[in-house]
């Protein structure tokens, strides 16, 4: 195998549909990250014709390899003539803030919710615009492969590097979007999971950034930044990762609990009884707030809300009942950000805990989601469980991961089994919707290959728990060996 072919193989192992992800020291190394930095600088410079230097923001999380990788990425970008703004430890949405506010490209060094042995990169074009495989990431991989095999050719005019502190401006911006001053006093337990929320929450909800005090009492869990994640996995979608939070909410008689993933761009919520609030219900609560705001400002305007196809049918119904138009989008943060811009949607939601805001450059923001939940809860007397129950999903299976070697064969077996009894759609994976009568409970399921793991993901929803179990078990019998 030639050096060029080896480079392509290395890059192919880590460059995914909408980001870079790999095991540190095996799939992802400093030379690979340096080559990606040079390639990213080339890609974004090509979009900024006439500018002597492109400025690139580089931030990183608290993983043990992140500072080294941020430095390597900046070095590669500088060699290709970019001026790099190093913002140091930050949440992913802080890089979106810098990219959107200053209209500059940005990169975040993080592996998000993945285990400690992983790291990766999330890219943004100027204005917090996403970069996916089809919108530049494939070109970045090709250029990076050349630099990895042949070395980085220095630009005629070298780049530079400077430091910047974005947290105070970021915190002030979020607080300007949601007014917490009028809310009733709330007690909230927040589990940062040793991730970046341990840095951002004290700035946004506390006095760390010099903002006005709000009537929110924060009880912190695992705010110490530690990329080895000594307390639990940085993925609040895993039930075991929120056990401590659930117990703490009950022990402290808190009004709610909030959990964030490693880079703090996803938010998960626990009600006052210690029960998890379904992401679709959480999305409905936030969507209704934003729809009402836009409706008040312009009663005749069309308001659009995005939702991916594995969120609950209840969310779509809530959006319509609130006077807005639900638009289904594909799964994946880069893909939904593209759709946010194209549709002008006020809000977008994914079942995975990513929530997107027109107010925040069309990007996702976990802490902004939390502020809306706090404002909604604190603006009325009911407990969170009552708010969530009003928009609770129908019976859902949750996401089930299956190891399936032959995805086309799996799709074919499902089509054969349900032909004549269901409609089929291949918009994102395969969605099968039952042809039920008005007296039968509805049902649907979706299977799709993961963009980040070698698995097939199954989601089922039905009008009753019994029907959901029946459909789920039937599909699993077809897919499991």
UniProtKB/TrEMBL annotation:
Cofactor: Mg(2+)
Source species, domain of life: Bacteria
Gene3D superfamilies xref list: Alpha-D-Glucose-1,6-Bisphosphate, subunit A, domain 3, Alpha-D-phosphohexomutase, C-terminal domain
Family designation: Belongs to the phosphohexose mutase family.
Any single biological process term in GO: carbohydrate metabolic process
Domain Alpha-D-phosphohexomutase C-terminal: 399-476
Domain Alpha-D-phosphohexomutase alpha/beta/alpha, first and last residues per copy: 15-131, 169-274, 279-391
Keyword Ion transport attached: no
GO molecular function, one term: magnesium ion binding
Species per Swiss-Prot/TrEMBL record: Cryobacterium frigoriphilum
Name of the protein in its database record: Phosphomannomutase/phosphoglucomutase
Protein's UniProt keywords contain DNA damage: no
Upper taxonomic lineage: Bacteria, Bacillati, Actinomycetota, Actinomycetes, Micrococcales
Entries under InterPro entries matching the protein: A-D-PHexomutase_a/b/a-I, A-D-PHexomutase_a/b/a-I/II/III, A-D-PHexomutase_a/b/a-II, A-D-PHexomutase_a/b/a-III, A-D-PHexomutase_C, A-D-PHexomutase_C_sf, A-D-PHexomutase_CS, Alpha-D-phosphohexomutase_SF
Keywords from the named record: Isomerase, Magnesium, Metal-binding, Phosphoprotein
């Amino acid at each position: 195998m030639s050096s060029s072919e080896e480079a392509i193989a290395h890059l192919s192992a880590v460059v995914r549909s909408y980001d870079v992800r790999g095991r540190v020291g095996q799939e992802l190394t400093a030379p690979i990250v340096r080559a990606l930095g040079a390639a990213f600088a080339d890609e974004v410079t090509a979009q900024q014709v006439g500018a002597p230097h492109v400025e690139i923001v580089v931030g990183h999380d608290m993983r043990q390899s992140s500072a080294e990788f941020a430095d390597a990425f900046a070095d590669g970008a500088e060699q290709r003539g970019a001026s790099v703004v190093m913002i140091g430890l930050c949440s992913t949405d802080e890089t979106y803030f810098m990219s959107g506010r200053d209209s500059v490209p940005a990169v975040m060094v993080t592996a998000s919710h993945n285990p400690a042995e992983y790291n990766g990169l999330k890219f943004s074009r100027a204005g917090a615009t996403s970069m996916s495989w089809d919108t530049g990431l494939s070109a970045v991989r090709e250029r990076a492969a050349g630099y990895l095999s042949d070395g980085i050719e220095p630009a005629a005019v070298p780049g530079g590097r400077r430091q910047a502190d974005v947290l105070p401006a970021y915190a002030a911006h979020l607080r300007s979007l949601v007014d917490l001053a009028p809310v009733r006093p709330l007690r909230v337990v927040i589990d940062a999971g040793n991730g970046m929320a341990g840095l951002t929450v004290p700035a946004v909800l506390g006095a760390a950034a010099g903002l006005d005090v709000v009537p929110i009492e924060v009880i912190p869990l695992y705010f110490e930044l530690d990329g080895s994640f000594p307390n639990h996995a940085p993925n609040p979608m895993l039930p075991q990762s929120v056990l401590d939070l659930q117990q703490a909410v009950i022990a402290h008689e808190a009004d709610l609990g909030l959990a964030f993933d490693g880079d703090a761009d996803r938010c998960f919520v626990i009600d006052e009884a210690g029960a998890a609030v379904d992401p679709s219900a959480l999305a409905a609560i936030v969507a209704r707030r934003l729809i009402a705001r836009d409706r008040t400002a312009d009663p005749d305007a069309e308001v659009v809300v995005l939702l991916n196809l594995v969120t609950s049918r209840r969310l779509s119904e809530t959006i319509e009942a609130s006077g807005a138009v639900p638009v289904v989008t594909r799964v994946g943060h880069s893909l939904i950000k593209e759709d946010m811009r194209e549709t002008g949607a006020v809000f977008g939601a994914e079942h995975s805990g990513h929530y997107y805001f027109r107010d925040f450059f069309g990007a996702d923001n976990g802490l902004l989601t939390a502020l809306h939940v706090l404002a909604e809860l604190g603006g009325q007397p009911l407990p969170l469980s009552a708010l969530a129950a009003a928009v609770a999903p129908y019976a859902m299976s949750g996401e089930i991961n299956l190891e399936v070697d032959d995805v086309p064969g799996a799709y074919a077996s499902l089509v054969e089994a349900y032909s004549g009894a269901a409609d089929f759609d291949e918009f994102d994976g395969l969605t099968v919707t039952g042809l039920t009568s008005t007296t039968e409970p509805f049902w649907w399921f979706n299977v799709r290959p993961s963009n980040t793991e070698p698995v097939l993901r199954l989601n089922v929803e039905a009008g009753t728990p019994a029907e959901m179990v029946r459909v789920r078990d039937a599909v699993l019998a077809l897919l499991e060996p």
